[in-house]
Specification:
By secondary structure, this protein is an all-alpha fold. The longest helix has 17 residues. The protein is globular, with a radius of gyration of 12 Å.
Length: 87
């Protein structure tokens, strides 16, 4: 519910694809205590959403304000300073 509320403020209605990305980021944070680099996230997206949706462009269509700021915010975490924004 909190993620839905934050996403609504950001102008996003969370769909299955959004949740897949958020779940990948949350799993990485739980396992590694850090948000994944963009290339690692894209590899995870290929496994969950398929290779045709594992692109920088598709990620930006889902989260127009960017992976780091918007995904981390909606996922309920602070964007790490060391996050490489290569997507």
């Amino acid at each position: 519910e909190v993620a839905d509320a934050i996403a609504a403020i950001e102008g996003i209605a969370l769909q299955r694809e959004h949740w897949a990305v958020l779940d990948l980021v949350r799993a990485a944070v739980t396992g590694h205590q850090d948000a994944p680099e963009g290339r690692v996230l894209l590899a995870g997206m290929a496994g969950v959403l398929g290779p045709d949706r594992a692109t920088r462009g598709y990620l930006h269509r889902l989260f127009p304000s960017g992976y780091g700021p918007q995904v981390c915010k909606i996922a309920g975490m602070r964007m790490p300073r060391t996050l490489l924004l290569d997507v």
